[in-house]
């Protein structure tokens, strides 16, 4: 491998090729600390041309490639194995804005830009890029594309599939697919960019993307409301859609267990607790005070246990901070069996009831921490313990997953709504995914990457 590494250093520069453990350490463990790898090296290319040359060289030497963005994966999708033979390709140096067309509401950026930097580039042009995640300061747009990220505003704006107009991708043979485009309509053949969104780097390395921008809302109305059960929460969702249409940008829910954790680790921040808390946000053009008055008037006619409406931008941010702190708060409280599931929003109450009952029967005293994007049906359904002391938590994981996923698919759902599959879920995907769909995906993988060098060991 010395010849390969020497030639690779000639492509990207020796300063951007890390082989020492002290240099590679920050790339080799996933965000949750669950997966640990040992790469052959970490390569940091600085251009699409360098990525293409790197891929051609790796192919010639039969070296597998593991692409990595901000290393915020919760499923181990960007972590190398322990063989010491896989090349980790970190795209952090591809971090430039290539083009901005404010009149066309489009922005072309490189894959290594953080989501927060993309949001800021749009804001600097008085535009909005609406994808929003708790990890937006560190996750990168290439990773967002590779997992088809969703986040907090899917209800109004959609996932990365809907937010992407074009892609540039280095294919497994080193060719560069130039499908960057600001077009909204193009019927000249298959929309090949969609193959790479959600593929977790198994079909090629995304190096740049043209993203869809929107007019920046000038008015926001944000409320935290308490309701008695999940059925009431979904009734609120539909009533808000009827009353406000696409002004309803966000509809998040947090169980009472979540609220108790927030109260424990962020004392004095939560204004109340209820069986379920709803974080609601409307956005529009015009004036925030006027939109807020409309929301207050609507809320006055609803049946709720408690509620607060933000009266200033500072109060709005405090409400958002509570929701965005949920993942970090649960991590502080200890490990959990995480489920990034999706069901139709209408099925959420039944799923929660059935899953809770089944888990309690199997594991008396189990604690479920449920929260997430109820507006689009995506729940983070996490089991914090199955028995006192957490001693058996991960030994119980297969049975917990089976209970949860069986019910998810009974309700026409998915086991991966926005976090991807990675190393965590391939065997579960094989169990639940339509076999014809899996066969089609594997056919595409074989056609593009017959040697299986792109992010091997994953679900394809």
Helix content percent band: 25-40%
| Class by SSE composition | alpha+beta
Largest sheet strand order: 15-12-14-13-17-18-16
Strand % is 15-25%
Explain what the structure shows.
The protein has 460 residues and is an alpha+beta fold. It folds into four domains: 2-90, Uridine Diphospho-n-acetylenolpyruvylglucosamine Reductase, domain 2 (2-Layer Sandwich), CATH 3.30.43.10; 97-215, 2-Layer Sandwich (Uridine Diphospho-n-acetylenolpyruvylglucosamine Reductase, domain 3), CATH 3.30.465; 219-327, Alpha-Beta Plaits (2-Layer Sandwich); 334-420, Alpha-Beta Plaits, CATH 3.30.70. The chain is 35% helix and 20% strand. The chain has helices at residues 2-12, 21-24, 48-60, 115-124, 141-146, 154-157, 160-163, 230-244, 256-265, 288-299, 313-324, 326-333, 348-362, 397-410, 426-432, 435-448, and strands spanning 17-18, 41-43, 65-68, 87-90, 97-101, 106-110, 127-128, 164-170, 176-179, 205-212, 214-215, 219-227, 248-255, 276-284, 306-309, 340-342, 367-373, 378-385. The strands form four sheets. The chain has a seven-stranded antiparallel β-sheet, sandwiched between helices. A five-stranded antiparallel β-sheet has the order 5-6-10-8-9. Helix 1 runs antiparallel to helix 3, helix 9 crosses helix 12 and helix 13 (348-362) runs antiparallel to helix 14. The longest helix is centred in the middle third of the chain and has 15 residues, at 230-244. The radius of gyration is 23 Å and the shape is globular. The protein starts with a helix and ends in a 12-residue tail after the last helix. The mean pLDDT is 95.
